[in-house]
Amino acid sequence: MSALAPDGPGEMGRAVVVPSERKKEAKDAFKINQFNLVASDMVSVNRSLKDVRMAACRSKTYDPLEVLGRTSVIVVFHNEAWSTLLRTVHSIINRSPRQLLEEIILVDDASERDFLGKKLEDYVAKLPVPVFVLRARKRTGLIRARLRGADKAKGKILTFLDSHCECTPGWLEPLLYEIHKDRSAVVCPIIDVINDDTFEYITGSDMTWGGFNWKLNFRWYPVPQRELERRKGDRSLPLRSPTMAGGLFSINREYFYEIGSYDPGMDIWGAENLEMSFRVWMCGGTLLIVTCSHVGHVFRKATPYTFPGGTGRIINRNNARLAEVWMCGGQVLIATCSRVGHVFRKVSPYTWPGGVARILNHNTRRTAEVWMDEYRDFFYKFNPGQALWGKKDGDIGVVGEVEVFEERKGWRMRGIKQTEVGDVSERKALRERLKCKSFHWYLENIYPESQMPVDYVSVGEVRNKQSNQCVDTMGRKTGEKIGMVPCHGMGGNQVFSYTKKKSFQTDDLCLDVSSVRGPVKLFQCHGLGGNQKWQYDKQTLTIQHVNSKQCLGTPSPTARDTPSLGACDGSLSQQWLLGNIDWK
Ligand code: UD2
Ligand code: MN
């Protein structure tokens, strides 16, 4: 027990030092769970943690516990390590008032190691709180595993946690209190970082919230000034977050079902968090990050498990959280971490061989089809299919039209039209039944800072009439020149939206000109016009930079692949067609 070993490895959330003679063992074991298993096993399952709440939170008082009601905590897992799973369980028990805890439900999603036999059942039987173990014989994926856990739960509130979490002092009361005040509140703690190598506990920032990009990846972004003002600068009040990370949240059990629980048509992993976020906001609920509640989570750089249908591994999008915490942790001003979500993008431009792409795309499409109305075009234009490297046909395991693009040393890159989406009619009926608002309403009212422009004129390629080439970001970053290459129709770097604010935007970057002679660069969109304001004329087909009055044209002979900026002359080289333009 921690009280008996205050200096033990990892106590108070300190970093663990693996002795040098075990370094090799630690390195070899890392790949099993994609974290340092040796370090995790050295830390007590009962380790102590600091109270990381801000001062204003520590002095808050809540309604009596009987009024708040009890929660069932549901933890689903697939091949979790014994030590991280049990530390999750013990931290729940050690740091939750007994009167608030109905039970803990562990759902084993067909683990293949460590959890065979009755070892876990025997272990939890000795704990002072009822802990149930449910087993799935066949892998169902985390979404259906959570549904199964919820089905068994008796508590008034459901609380979901990942299987490698640690709850800190005072984590539960503020979550339940917000639901007590408003039963349609879906509440998340601040997710702190448990370092995947040292198991050090690192406090996350209360100045980031959830968003998403055009690929429909969840991302952390800085909380805008607007939301700070709404709370009159009181950072201990809950944040109204546009989206949630997905793994850690509480919800009233009845409300969970009223609002459509989860989409059971989603497989394995991914996108269920955006689906729930859109649904909650659009159908009358609220999504909060309760800044007085802190729970740690082991963020990994890669996923440890196989995805049925392939052996691919995917770089974890949550990795951005690591970078964000380093840069924005503590009290750093917003400006210094304003580009975190972008700069630290670790996601490969192509998805990886295997079933990963198929599963993620399937889940994401279900979200887009049911909830995003016309804005689903952003996802489809950006990802018209998938381009994947594989050796054999089975490697990509997708449904859809397959075409070989490129071959290199036995590897082939194939493009896939689209993964199948399955039947979404029930989810659409749910949306009708709940009389949910539109995605436009969501963007306008809940997430005006979104990378998806609230009002836009077109989304698609920007094609030159003379050369038939397309404007292309070339994968470059903010501050760099844009390029121009043959149009490839594969979305990605060639997709721009012409917005009602008259900017040309691609994900979070805009075409920007700061000197009359150019060049045209990419710059973080600021939404204020200025250097990012362009006038597209659908008669003359010209794209004129408003400040400089110059027109966009094909590259000059000296500029190679960089589009030029020059006096408007009405020539064919200054005429542009905007992809799939849909004038509204
Ligand atoms: C994040 C969420 C995670 C989930 C996921 C998208 C956080 C901290 N985590 O990714 O909860 O919303 O995004 O789907 O917000 N698991 C199964 N069966 C499977 C695969 C996973 O039970 O087939 C379990 C796994 O053991 C873990 C949980 O599901 O407890 C989430 O998986 P993860 O930790 O790999 O996801 P993470 O944190 O990268
Ligand atoms: Mn996780």
Class per helix and strand makeup: alpha+beta
Q: What is the CATH topology assignment of the largest domain? A: Spore Coat Polysaccharide Biosynthesis Protein SpsA, Chain A
Mean pLDDT score? 85
Distance between the termini: 65 Å
CATH classification class of the largest domain = Alpha Beta
Strand order across the biggest sheet?
3-2-1-4-11
Pfam families: Glycos_transf_2, Ricin_B_lectin
EC number: 2.4.1.-
Membrane topology: Single-pass type II membrane protein
Protein name: Polypeptide N-acetylgalactosaminyltransferase
Features:
single chain, 584 residues, alpha+beta, Spore Coat Polysaccharide Biosynthesis Protein SpsA, Chain A, Trefoil (Acidic Fibroblast Growth Factor, subunit A), 2 domains, five-stranded mixed β-sheet, 28 strands, binds uridine-diphosphate-N-acetylgalactosamine, binds manganese (II) ion, lectin, Polypeptide N-acetylgalactosaminyltransferase, metal ion binding, disulfide bond, EC 2.4.1.-
Short summary of the structure?
The chain has 584 residues and is α+β, with helices and mostly antiparallel strands. Helix content is 25%, strand content 23%.
